[in-house]
Amino acid sequence: MTWALTLVLMFLMLLALGSQDLLLDYNVVSSAHAEQNSESNAASRKTRKTPALRQNVYKKISEAQEFSDAKDFNGALEVLNKLEKRPKLNAYEKAMVYYLKGFAFYSQDKYPDSIEAFRKIVGNESVPLEFENRVLGTLAQLYFVVENYKEVINVLVRLHGQQDKPTHQSLFALAQAYYLEKEYDRAIETVGRVMAMDRKAGVITSENTLLLLQGCHFEKKNIKQVAGILETLVELYPKKQYWIQLSAVYSQLGLDEKQMSAMELAYRQNYLSKSKEFEMLAQLYLYHALPYKAARLLEKALKNKQMESNKKNLKLLGDAWVLAKEVDKAIVALKKAAKLSKRGDIYERLVELYSEKENWTEVVRNSEEAVKKKDLNNIGRLYLLKGVAHFNLEEFESARTALKKAKKKPKTARFAKSWMRYVDREEQRAMLEESIAEQ
Question: Is residue 361 part of a domain?
Fold first, then answer.
């Protein structure tokens, strides 16, 4: 399973949907001022004293923001680089410069440069705590973009340590980063915190959260847990892939009946679409001694062109009808399969079935077709049945010819000899009766 790829795509989707408050908040000066004046954190946390943003610096920052508004990010960077070189900038003013530089680099897809700029803000005691936390969230997303998951973890752990209550989204992102760093136990623990938040809020756990948890347990080979999560997925988010995966997991656990039930429920909900899926369910029916169900399933799938009418599928249908004691239907399917096969083994099967029905003409015809294609399973038995068919058609010489060939094969030699003696006796009796009738 390509869990890692799935998770990265999932996060990028979250990034697109949820990043505006972080990455696109370039009009930061007024909001930072507001935080500077209204910041209130837990009593246990250190209160930060933020120096003033001087008027001459504010003007340059506003100028840089105007360039950013006009999408002239090079112009913004030129203003900011000159401002950064001023020797008397206080720590808060520098943080504003770094923030706007980070945004400008981000807007140009220069992610390493953007990260470097934002990193300079982290740990700056002169900026409001909530502002620094927003920067940490931005950094986490940027590290995801450049696939540096270890730094995602470091940044988010720091962020959560500075928050009264981590957000649902940032906890989920941390769990993803743990997963991608192969720290599955920590990922599972963090997903547990996400799910606890869901329960407390009275909401259903998201599909992506369950998939992440499933991925962790899959990597740890906790197959029972994977099965449990898939059971939840098919209940809350019923989709084809979850039913198919659940059936496969039941198979790994040796739960054969549950494996069949999962596939059958998927079929009833019209989730099966691939030929191999119908074949799998048919094989499960046959394994559980339900040949009629298997045959009906295959018949319908072939009729609806959900399965190709090839040799393999037609033979499977024929075999299912045989096991269901529907010989005539089996013959119809096997005749079609035999014509598509390069081997003669399916004609051998038809010879057996026609022998059971005592349709001796068809036994002879199908025997001859089988010999033409060669690659037979038991040519001795084929000639034996052909000889019996000729005998019943009172074609004694042809019967004797076929039985002689059967006699050359060790497995059928004894039966062929017995039949040859019987043919001789019956031929003599028939000749005697004919002679008497002529007198």
Answer: yes
Domain span including residue 378: 347-439
> What average pLDDT does the chain have?
89
Total-model pTM: 0.80
- Which three-class secondary structure string do you get for 257-291? HHHHHHHHHHHHCCCCCCHHHHHHHHHHHHHCCCH
Per residue in 377-429, pLDDT tens?
999 999 999 999 999 999 999 999 999 999 999 999 999 999 999 998 988 88
Q: What is the CATH number of the domain that holds 389?
A: 1.25.40
C-alpha torsion sign, points 151, 152, 155, 157: negative
| Residue 408 located in a structural domain | yes
The count of domains in the chain is 1
In a domain, 410, yes or no: yes
The whole-angstrom separation of Cα 22 and Cα 58 is 21
In this predicted model, what pLDDT tens digit does every residue of 297-309 receive, in sequence order?
Answer: 999 999 999 999 9
219 phi, psi to nearest 5 deg = -65, -30
Domain-located, residue 358 = yes
3-state helix, strand, coil in the chain (%, to 5): 75, 0, 25
Nearest to residue 187, comparing CAs of 222, 147, 214? 214
